[in-house]
Amino acid sequence: MLINQDLAAFMASPVMIILGTRDDALVPEIARAVGAVVRREEGCVDLAVSEWQWSKTVANVRANGQLAVTFARPSDYVSYQVKGHATVASAAAEHVALARRYIESMASTLGELGLERRVVAPWLVERDLVTLCLSVQEIFVQTPGAKAGQLIEQFP
Amino acid sequence: MTIRLRDLAACFEGVIPSIIATAAPDGMPNISYLSHVVLVDDERVALSNQFFSKTATNVRANPAAAVLLVDPRDGGQYRLDVIFEQTLDSGGLFEEMAIQLRATSTQVGIGEVMRLRGVDIYRVRGVQAVPSPTPRQEVSSREAGLQLMAAAAVARRVSEASDVGTIVDAVLDGLREAFSFKHAMLLLKESAGERLVTVGSRGYERSGIGSEVLVGEGIIGTAASERRPVRVSDMSRIRRFSSAVHASSDEENRTRTIALPGMPDAMSQVALPMIAHGVLRGVLFLESSQRLAFTREDEAALAVVALQAAAALALAEAEILEGPSSVPVVADQSVLTGRGFRVVHYAYDDSIFIDNEYLIKGVPGRLLMYLLRIHQREGRTEFTNREIRLSEDLRLPDIKDNLETRLLLLRRRLEEKAAPVQLLRTSRGRIRLEVAGRAVLEEATS
Fold first, then answer.
1. 3-state secondary structure (DSSP) of residue B231
2. How far apart are CA B304 and CA B156, in angstroms?
């Protein structure tokens, strides 16, 4: 299923990426990703994640695949959440390079908002990267306001 | 090492957004940013619920959730393992969070969106630090109990002061010396109740004495209308409530309004209501260019200072009503040492201009004209508060509440403008007019 071009561009821009998963007992877990590649035609998003920092999240995806991802622009809180099923792959060279670029641009974006590099460093970690390949099933508006939580696209 | 919630106080300041993850009964997770997480006690946190409706739905079916908190000083991340307990839509905690949300969201012009629907209480089962490649910084936190000692030191100073002016000074000097808070102002409510007027400040280029804030407007006005402290730890996204930072006396002369002082680069602000006998008397306001300059403990200590100052001020005003009754002896004053000066009074708003410089308006303006007229007529320079209060000429039924405050405002404003007429407080309930040169009094018609 095709992902809207504007949305794809938004997801690949310097936005904060947060991940939600759960274990077998339905206990949720939180993590951050350091970069996204959108494969529009396939309806897929690849996410670079540090397994060293977020081991429980990667284990949850390996176990059940259910994954929710919110992309939020720090300057104005414009946000979208995508949900679907994901698999874990080892990070290809392109994903390692992607994470590098993302960390650079994110640190400078947050720097413009007055956050020092030493403060944002713990959120932008590239140690032991893996790739989560998310097959998107639902897309929601998440920007704070009346439309928050509204479903904008659903793929069978 | 076990991490206690209270060790994470900085994470609850709302500087870096927190995150919550939940899961629906079918297992699908949900991940969302949170605007406010509040520390309730060592075992519970409260989350504001404005619009993250999927989160609210999920925890009602599956109460297990994860919350990620971030320390704004070093970026350190902490994962809380939480269980949803209940939703509150009233009570002290709800009110406190609603006010905080309103005060900060009216600043950014999204008051409507940020209406608080409920406060969700979660029990915290565990706290873990998220691995970080950068070493955690040893951030020096102020020693607990220090604020209490500082508040006691200010209270001592205030207790020694006996009139409105010295009480205001005792509070502001005390904040600077005992707390090391360098930018502060004290505003008192007008008896009409719609406005707060600055009667003293420290740390600003201009004192701003006589400047006004509407009750309900901005952080200061919200603390007044809600009668609760309002604190902001990161102003970087909040528009300044006063754009009048570059005020000049030309501007004052044109608008007959004195601009509120303020720091152009303020990052933290706190406003404390001053209440005595159940009546709001004013607001104590502090600001800093540092993020997180005022902790929750600071806020509590400052709230005590503000309330004690309110009680002292109420007492000082009440005592004045029983001040000396004897009208001072008519002194033969020949104070024609300086050059003459012109005092123009505009009756419609009681504004006063001395040699074309705006001084003040309203009741303090009327008071000055009254004193100068008697001075011209009788040559008298000594006055009692009692005779002013009883004066038929002033026709001020409401003035008895805060005559001292208005006289203080007039006195400080005359001082600040280095006017050729000055007001001195000689003893309790008595004032003296010092006039350098002959005053030419004029009534302006327009």
1. strand
2. 12
- Residue B55 contacts residue B21 (beta carbons within 8 Å): no
Look up residue B154 and give its two tokens: 């200010």
Q: What span, in angstroms and rounded, lies between the C-alpha atoms of B382 and B402?
A: 20
The C-alpha atoms of residue B154 and residue B177 are separated, in whole angstroms, by 9
User: What distance, in Å, lies between the first and last C-alpha atoms of chain A?
Assistant: 9
Any CB–CB contact under 8 A between B203 and chain A?
A: no
What CA–CA distance (Å, rounded) separates B13 from B445? Answer: 54
Q: What are phi and psi of B35, to 5 degrees?
A: -85, -40
User: Are the beta carbons of A121 and B133 separated by less than 8 Å?
Assistant: yes
B329 assigned to some structural domain = no
Q: What ipTM was predicted for this assembly?
A: 0.95
Which of B254, B288, B320 terminates a domain? The answer is B320
For A94-150, the pLDDT digits (tens) are 999 999 999 999 999 999 888 899 999 999 999 999 999 999 999 998 876 666 677
The DSSP string of chain A is: -PPPHHHHHHHTSS-EEEEEEE-TT--EEEEEES-EEEETTTTEEEEEEETTT-HHHHHHHHHH-EEEEEEE-TTT--EEEEEEEEEEEEPPHHHHHHHHHHHHHHHHHHHHTT--HHHHGGGS--TTEEEEEEEEEEEEE-SSSTTTT-EEEE--
Nearest CA among B112, B126, B121, B16 for reference residue B81? B126
**Which tokens hold the place of B441?**
């009094």
pLDDT at residue B44 in the model: 94
Residues B68 and B190 in one domain: no
Query: Looking at the domain assignment, is residue B336 inside a domain?
Result: no
The candidate with the shortest Cα–Cα distance to B88, out of B48, B36, B43, is B48
The domain tally of chain B equals 3
Q: What SS3 state is found at B36?
A: coil
**Token pair of B442 as six digits:** 């004029």
Whether B113 sits inside 8 A of A19 (CB atoms) is no
Q: Which residues of A touch B (CB under 8 A)?
A: 18-22, 25-30, 52-54, 64, 66-70, 72, 77, 79, 81, 83, 113-114, 118-123, 125, 127, 140, 142, 144-146, 148-149
CA A126 to chain B, closest CA, distance in angstroms equals 10
For residue B124, give both structure tokens.
């915290």
CATH number for the region A5-144 comes to 2.30.110.10
On the 0-12 / 13-18 / 19+ scale of CB atoms within 10 A, B4 is exposed
CA atoms within 13 A on the CB side of B205: 10
Q: Which residues of A touch B35 (CB under 8 A)?
A: 144
Q: Say if the Cβ atoms of B113 and A145 lie within 8 Å.
A: yes
- Provide the residue range defining the domain that includes B37: 5-129
Q: Which residue has the higher pLDDT, B337 or B181?
A: B181
Give the CA distances from residue A6 to residues A11, A35, B196, in Å, rounded to whole numbers and listed in that order: 9, 17, 49
Cβ atoms within 10 A of the Cβ of B323, count? 17
User: Residue B245: pLDDT above 70?
Assistant: no
Express as a percent the part of chain B with pLDDT over 70: 84
